[in-house]
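How a chain folds remains the central question behind the approach discussed here. This step matters because it turns folding into a mapping between discrete strings. The sequence in question and its structure tokens are set out directly beneath this paragraph.
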Amino acid sequence: MKSPLKNPSSIPPFFSRCFPGPKHLCSLPQTPIPHPTNPAEKTTSDSQFTGKPFSDSQNPISLAPIDPHFPSSSSEDASLTPTHVINTLLRHKNDPVSALNYFRSVEEKGGFVESIDVFCVLLHILVGSSQTHKQAQFLLNDIFASDHSGSAPVVFLDHLVDTSKRFDFELNSQAFNYLLNSYVRVNRIDDAVDCFNGMLERDIVPWIPFMNILLKALVRRNLMDKARDLYGKMVSIGVRGDSFTVYAMMRAFLKEGKPWEAEELFREAEAQGIDLDAAVYSIAIQAACKKPDLNMVGELLRKMQGRGWVPSEGTFTTVIGAFVKQGNLVEALRLKDGMLSSGKPLNVVVATSLMKGYCKQGDIDRALDLFDKIKEDGLAPNKVTFTVLIEWCCRNRSVKKAYELYEEMKTMGIQPTVFNVNSLIRGFLEACSLNEASSLFDEAVESGIANVFTYNIFLYHFSKNGKVKEACSLWQRMVANGLAPSNVSYNNMILAYCKVGNMDMAHHAFSEMVERGFKPNAITYSMLIDGHFSKGEAERALDVFDEMVGVHIAPSDYTFNIIINGLSKVGRTCEARDMLKMFVQKGFIPLCMTYNSIINGFVKEGAMNSAFGVYREMCESGISPNVITYTTLVNGFCKSNNMDLALKMHYEMKSKGLQLDVPAFTALIDGFCKTGDMVRACELFSELQQVGLSPNEIVYNSMVSGFRNINNMEAANDLHKKMINEGIPCDLHIYTTLIDGFLRENKLLLAFDLYSEMLAKGIVPDIVTYTVLLNGLCKKGQLENAHKILEEMDREGITPNVLIYNALIAGHFREGNLEEASRLHNEMLDRGLVPDDTTYDILVNGKVKGENLRSGVSCA
């Protein structure tokens, strides 16, 4: 066999090294042995495996005629020196089987100290014949398996090269490749790498299959740097390898999390014409899925099909999962059909991926149908399957179904995880099923699977609802069970205190958080800022913001929105507008709700020009106003009696295709009702119902008040009856409005029927209701009934106001009862009430609102 030695001139500079001299395991000097064909040339003798000096003769190898038979003399044992053994092996150079048998017989007899040179000579003989290649490999494996310390690879390499020269063997690279392979086989990977490098240094190019074996071993052991180095050295001398080489390196890149490098290697291999097999295409598809590059996935699948290759079940599984992850459920389902038509069975991983795809599209029913189908087909769902369905059922507010799956999971012997429990607890809380959530929470605590996230879910529930006592109790329970609070736990407690306005305790929790080594984040500071704004403490809120910036915590968009909204709510809308400009310069991207906060602030301040100016800025910046924007503006224009602009905003909102909600209609209806334009109010009321919305009590309040104001109590009472028929509760304001209207029309009986109906429903009158009743009764001369109402007020602990006393005093003036009028005046003063101009007009001038009360008073 011809030697595959690389031409030294073609080796890159970093491989061009001086050929090293033979290295010995033994440090003792050895007697030189002349080369058989050149007695004048001298070299070092063979070193021993054990590192011991030769036991007897170290004479040069004799060039006596070769005896065709094994030694048979009685002094044979004494002649078993390395020199003698090598001489005997060389006599059987052309009969490798006999040479191996002789070597084995010598080993069995004992008394012979094996040496590297003996072993190398035998190896040369064995690889010289194709019949004994396997024996050569077995011999190497046996030697290295039994001698784990052994000789360094470079020693073997040097002796192989040296013995080939000394004993006139053709330098067969097969021996070197078998040596490399044996190091891998006995798991001496570092030695294998040294052997590989040593071969290159000696201009011996490893065969690609053996290089692949080493590459595979390195990748399997996650020695990626060494794999890269090995492959790089091969490439540097022009050896690209084969399909398996490409596969091994692509697998290494994927294990490193570098799918783009795997793709690049695949493209290079394709361009170089390497005959790539189905396994390489499969791992290329895997790399494309991880990037993800689904276009490339499709391209690779088409190429595989073009070559007649059917993707494996694993490849189908990976690809379908990738398409589901990218939201392309249609293609995922098409691939699933292709998988089934190619004879591959539907596995639980693919089924679970498709269920998740359905869930992400909001189609929980189809996901559950697929779940039932795979069970019917005998496919057992696993823990991941149940986890996907439980989580998404909870997200879809189908917590009852999620709990059924949870119970089924346990019935099948699959132990639920804390993630499953946490999903269910969160789902029950969002569905306002506190008892079920608490029961599941207690079960999780008792079983020991509850973690800090479990507690945080409940902490947040209590905190956002301002239930500080419950939150504190849960905190103590968490600590008592040995769980350390997290950053989120402290944030939840801070939120709880902020919700109830206890900012001192909120800051106390913040200080404790810092002392415990937790770092407050943007959410922590944002909650404190919001808490201070909610209490009207704008300056303190801005101080917290400055502190946040001072400790180099970058405010989030949530923080900026809180500040803008907070300033707008406390009447500092101009400052909020200036803040917005400053925040935008810092990279803040305002949302529709950001502008809505400022618009609402200006509307509350009555600055409609400024509000409309912000609306224009919003539109110019490319942000589309929403229903809240228009509703706020409509409400503002109605309050400023600018109904034309209010109606214009209403029509603009409709022209943009926005779905008007009840508040949007309410603002405009209320505006027309207050201006007495009940025709337009009724038109909008009808339109509201035509688009499928149901008017609420606020809309009815506006309509009833509007008809009362134009003295159309028949229409007002019809609305009241409609409310009752539709099950819409009538509140105190509606009853008061109706009573006032009927009293104005002298329909006392209807007024008192409504009053009795109101009391029967448990609605307690307020000072406004009593004022309406007393004023109406007094005007109609029903003073006795008026005093009964006054007594009722006393029983309820409600102090009459100046308006009530004015009505009573005026009533008695009309009846000519000046003494009672005077007494009521004194009683009013005794209660600490200050008479107004109306009171003195009645007492001094005998008039009220143009009515001359003197006419009803007889002169003394």
